[in-house]
């Protein structure tokens, strides 16, 4: 892979001409356009055949792809579902959009406007631009995902969000980078807000790491949408559940649909176990 291919790959296939010209001259760039290996998106920007269309839309709208769209491109958890608009951070100076554009929502961080040097914002700028485009629990899940993948450190979040309203700053206290999926983050956040004391990602002897442990005995396992099923994962999970039951644990396994569409029913089932105080019963000696 040569330097231009690497640059295109790192920037989702949409790159400023100035960045390309660090590695090739103008005649070579024109040759790439003639042969179809590159195309001009707007003045000063080029894309390859694999360019992400969301990034192209953002550049044409006078900014950079940001918020939920950019986070998703970086592999960070975002709420699933088709989005009717592209999330774009407006540029400054000549790239500042003069008119609203159909299908584009302009989002940006509070108190600053970083330059739009790339077609897709960095994970941190995208996260800072997302506070008004998701719910509190979704923002916590986004931050959890970034913490888990090492895009940001826990202490950095306080500093990055220092200019934001108190309702946003306070969400940092709910973040935990141990969460391994967005749905796990949502369940932890909802249960904690309901007053349930729990521990995330606990290693249980003879069973392994479980998503959430409530009291002594109640294990909550949360399936994400990325979980593709199949016989092997299905059998593995059932073996874990069997071993847990054999050791007197209570296992509640929540599907993606339970979390996203039937949460009230799932919460009531969990709360019934807690109200009966079954989660606090001592485990038998082994």
From TrEMBL:
It holds the Pfam family DUF559. It comes from the Bacteria. InterPro entries: DUF559 (IPR007569), Restrct_endonuc-II-like (IPR011335). Residues 195-274 form the DUF559 domain. This is DUF559 domain-containing protein.
């Amino acid at each position: 892979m040569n330097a231009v291919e690497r640059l295109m790959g790192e920037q989702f296939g949409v790159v400023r001409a100035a960045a390309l010209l660090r590695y090739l001259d103008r005649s070579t760039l024109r040759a790439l356009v003639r042969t179809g290996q590159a195309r001009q998106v707007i003045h000063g920007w080029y894309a390859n055949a694999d360019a992400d269309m969301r990034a192209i839309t953002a550049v044409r709208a006078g900014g950079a792809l940001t918020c939920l769209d950019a986070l998703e491109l970086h592999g960070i958890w975002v709420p699933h579902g088709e989005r009717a608009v592209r999330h774009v951070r407006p540029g400054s100076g000549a790239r500042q959009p003069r008119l609203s554009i159909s299908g584009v929502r302009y989002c940006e961080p509070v108190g600053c406007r970083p330059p739009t040097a790339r077609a897709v914002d960095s994970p941190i700028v995208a996260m800072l631009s997302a506070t008004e485009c998701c719910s509190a629990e979704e923002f916590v899940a986004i931050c959890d995902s970034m913490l888990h993948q090492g895009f940001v450190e826990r202490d950095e979040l306080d500093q990055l969000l220092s200019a934001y309203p108190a309702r946003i700053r306070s969400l940092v206290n709910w973040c935990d980078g141990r969460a391994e999926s967005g749905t796990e983050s949502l369940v932890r956040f909802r249960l904690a807000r309901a007053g349930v004391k729990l521990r995330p990602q606990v290693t249980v002897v003879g069973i392994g790491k479980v998503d959430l442990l409530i009291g002594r005995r109640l294990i909550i396992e949360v399936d994400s949408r990325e979980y593709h099923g199949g016989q092997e994962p299905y059998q593995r999970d059932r073996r874990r559940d069997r071993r847990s039951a054999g050791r007197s644990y209570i296992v509640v396994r929540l599907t993606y649909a339970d979390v996203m569409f039937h949460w009230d029913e799932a919460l009531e089932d969990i709360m019934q176990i807690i109200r009966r105080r079954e989660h606090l019963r001592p485990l038998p000696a082994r």
